[in-house]
What we know:
The protein is mainly β.
Amino acid sequence: MYTTPYNSFADIPNPTKAHRKLSGDGSLHNTQQRLDMSLGFKSGLSENATFDIKAFYHLNRIKYGNAHINMAHLEIENQPSGSSGGGGSNDLRFNHLVADQSGSLFDDQKVGLLAKYDLRHSNGRFIAGVESLYNYAKRNMIANVSSTGPIGKYHHDSDISLNGSKWSNALYALEKYDFTQRFSLTGGARYEFASYHTFVHNIQQIMAERHINLSSIDSTKTHHTSLHNFALEFSPHFAYSDSGNVSAKYERGFFSPSSHSLIGYVGGEYNNAIQPDGFVLIEVKNINNGVYVTSNIPKKETYDSFELVWKDIFWDKVMLSANAFYTLTHNEFNTTGNFYALGTKGTWISNYNKTQRSGIELFSQQYFFEGKFNLSQSFTYIDARIKDKGLNANVRIPYVSNYKGTFGISLALGKHWNVWSQNTFYGNQKDISGESMKAYHLTDIGVNARFGDLSLNAGVRNVFDTFYYSYYNNDSRLYHTLAGNGTLAGYGFLIGQGRSAFIEGRYTF
């Protein structure tokens, strides 16, 4: 795959449609290998009972070939020993920075075994199963950051290998019991035990001239841990008529993290001092203050979710449904910082204390002329907030739209052809720094056809050429920590696809 880095707010503070096709400053080329294999066996133990077993293997390997990112400059705050901060006129500045990540590797492999017993009895259905999954992941990060400037050269070379494995084993059971033809209860439980092993080999070297001060590290760290998790589900369901029903659901769930989520990088500390001869001496106190630390291992993420659902069909032409939900998450995972941050923060997965999501979902669909002309509408409102104390008290969770609405039309033209239009309205979002991303809407139109096993679909997406972002991070703290032009640290954007035509075909054998 050939592409370029995203653009930076440092270079383009106010993006417009004119920047939509602007390439990022650099070149990214990677190759990907994917392989999925599975082998299954199914046996009918009796007229009402079956047993399934499946083994599978998954490979996803990405190699970075030519991966260069150009940046305008690098700034390092002037922070002499004993001072509390920089930001002065004596801050270090290196121009024409280039980051070369060629040779980096991402390798993810999974092998697993799934077994399930399924029994349909006179009063419902019972399912039980076991799952065993081994996941091995390797990330080899090669990053050579270099610059030339008025005070000399700057080099930061990294070769960091992270090898992590996770072996998880789980048991689960689910029972749906029909007390009457109209009322049923569903309940289930799941238990998982996961064992983690991580190995990190970290090689880094920093050199700055004219006064040369070389700092390097070559360290190895290992970490082993295990996590126990359980999930519960309880759901009553009542059909008050042949077409209408109401249900409720409580779920206690968990997020099972990957092995790399349990380690974090701590960046170096720089003390800069202006020398009597006017040159600058960089003193690298700690190129890596602990490297990949285990003291900041995140807590396991769990959640409690409540849901009420209603659905009905009227006059065989109108379908309506409504859903109200509330989710309280404990220790939700989030990524803090970035690898290129200078200072003691670096990057790692951390936890919000509590997050809360509550909202409603409405959906309607109407069928006319024996289904030849159809309308559909939906609306979702969600209030997603971080419930921590301090700076994160009651602020919105980043990158969650506060509403989403849709309106669709479909018209059949004869036996084979169908024309359609889909309108989607997205509410505003907050980025990681709390800055608002404006609401927008997209309109797509198209025609599809079906001739036996052959289906065709063609149309235009984003008919009105709406301006929106597919990636947005205007957190200037990432820019000022390791300035460059922000493309390494995340201080950048990608403008969403403008008006475009598409055509698709599919044949089913």
